[in-house]
Automatic annotation (TrEMBL):
This is LysE family translocator. The lineage of its organism: Bacteria, Pseudomonadati, Pseudomonadota, Alphaproteobacteria, Rhodospirillales. It comes from Ferrovibrio xuzhouensis. It is found in: Cell membrane. InterPro entries: LeuE-type. The chain crosses the membrane at residues 6-30, 42-67, 73-93, 114-139, 145-169, 190-208. Coiled coil: none annotated. It is a multi-pass membrane protein. Keywords: Cell membrane, Membrane, Transmembrane, Transmembrane helix.
Length: 209
């Protein structure tokens, strides 16, 4: 086994606690759920998974060192991610209740959700820096690197899917209990507000000293 059971359990416990704390990505998938239902919310997790895979790979390859050393690179990534989230949130806020059902049923709606969550996860510089700081604590330098990274990557993504999926299903049930256009409009705006809030949260990120 690439990773000892003790180290794997320690990593899984620490990762689960960190994932359970809502951040920009979690707020975004919850926003999609409130606006378009649990199906779109769950599909958006595909984008989160792909974004995490890219972030972990980039951090291991050393891109995190560039972000940590270059204030300009960090700021560019931060503001791109923040602006993208705010833009999506405003679009959701302004959409009419009549647009919700086609959005849930269309392939484009799912595709957009996946692409949006992927970009937001990837454009969050703190995510890459987080993996760069978090993963080395569990790496055994006497064993091959990439098999360990693969195990940790799969573990993190599975835990993220389970925990965020639980949030989505709970919110999806609450959304399904209210079907009036007025309440759907309110939930649509709430979802948009959550995305804008996630963008503002991203904008407050500071580069580690």
């Amino acid at each position: 086994m690439p990773v000892s059971p003790e180290i794997w359990l320690a990593f899984a416990a620490a990762a689960a606690l960190l994932i359970a704390i809502p951040g920009p990505t979690t707020l975004m998938v919850m926003g999609h759920t409130m606006a378009s239902g649990a199906r779109i919310g769950l599909l958006s997790l595909i984008g989160v998974t792909l974004g995490d895979v890219c972030a972990i790979t980039l951090s291991v390859l050393g891109f995190s060192a560039l972000l940590a050393a270059s204030a300009t690179a960090f700021l560019v990534m931060k503001w791109l991610g923040a602006a993208y989230l705010v833009w999506i949130g405003i679009k959701l806020w302004r959409s009419a209740p009549a647009e919700l059902k086609p959005l849930v049923q269309s392939r484009g709606g799912a595709g957009r959700a996946i692409m949006q969550t992927f970009l937001v996860t990837l454009l969050n510089p703190k995510g890459i820096l987080f993996f760069a700081a978090f993963l080395p604590q569990f790496i055994d330098h006497t064993r091959p690197l990439w098999p360990q990274v693969l195990v940790f990557m799969i573990t993190f993504d599975v835990l993220a899917a389970l925990i965020q999926g639980g949030y989505i299903l709970a919110m999806g049930r609450a959304r399904g209990a209210v079907a009036s256009p007025r309440l759907l409009k309110t939930m649509n705006r709430a979802g948009g507000a959550m995305l804008v809030g996630a963008g503002l949260l991203t904008a407050t990120l500071k580069r580690a000293a």
